[in-house]
Design a protein that fits this description.
The chain contains eleven helices and eight strands. It is an alpha/beta fold.
Length: about 220
């Protein structure tokens, strides 16, 4: 095993995160049509809020409420309650990405395993349990609970502390977000592996220590 400790992102790294499916199911309960065009309008509000959250300009509660305010006003509901419903819906439809279970089985016991996620508390532990993988992880670090989000170095330091301070140079962060996961981990002194599903070009100035296209490829790398 190349590393003593391996930290994973959650959404689109271990878990398939189909926000459109979750939102469609959520709003169908209120007989509100939600198509791809409406999803794009939602993302025009949601994505900038995530950028503000990762930059530390807003907190988790503000992000979660603001992204649902237009829909809450239309339906006469509370935005925070809509958000909670959405998170529970996402936990209900959650599935592991291909190769995730096989990877965890292969490396379990060979390294400490943890998760660092900018996702929200209401969903994280629930879907770990429902997908049957909670027992593989020694630590679950959620930005909403820590008070800072990736790529802030403090959340990586918190994760290391929760695992008994493993050596940074023997710790690998794996994630699909090259800014939050890769650059954030490297700035915190760790190695980083970019799970580059779409074979995208890395932004100028960011060089992952490793790049893989799938979790099965990551398994081969780790066990080489």
């Amino acid at each position: 095993m190349l590393f003593d400790c391996i930290l994973f992102d959650a959404d689109d790294t271990l878990f398939h995160f189909d926000a459109f499916a979750g939102l469609s199911r959520l709003f169908s309960r209120y007989e509100l049509a939600f198509d791809q065009a409406e999803f794009q309008r939602y993302q025009q509000l949601n994505l900038p809020l995530w950028q503000q959250y990762q930059a530390g300009d807003i907190n988790a509660e503000q992000l979660q409420s603001r992204r649902f305010m237009p829909y809450a006003e239309k339906l006469g509901l509370d935005a925070a309650e809509l958000n909670d419903e959405f998170l529970l819906t996402m936990a209900d439809i959650c599935t592991l990405l291909p190769g995730a279970l096989e990877l965890l089985q292969a490396i379990s016991g060979k390294a400490q395993l943890g998760i660092i996620t900018n996702g929200f508390s209401r969903m994280q532990q629930l879907r770990l349990e429902r997908c049957g993988v909670a027992h593989y992880f020694d630590s679950l670090v959620i930005s909403e609970q820590v008070g800072v989000a990736k790529p802030h170095p403090a959340i990586f330091a918190h994760a290391l502390a929760s695992l008994g301070h493993p050596a940074k140079h023997k710790t690998l962060m794996v994630g699909d977000n090259i800014l939050a996961d890769v650059q954030g981990a490297q700035q915190a002194g760790m190695a980083a592996c970019w799970l580059n599903h779409q074979q995208q070009q890395a932004p100028q100035g960011i060089q992952p220590d490793y790049t893989v296209q799938s979790l099965s490829e990551l398994q081969q790398l780790l066990l080489a």
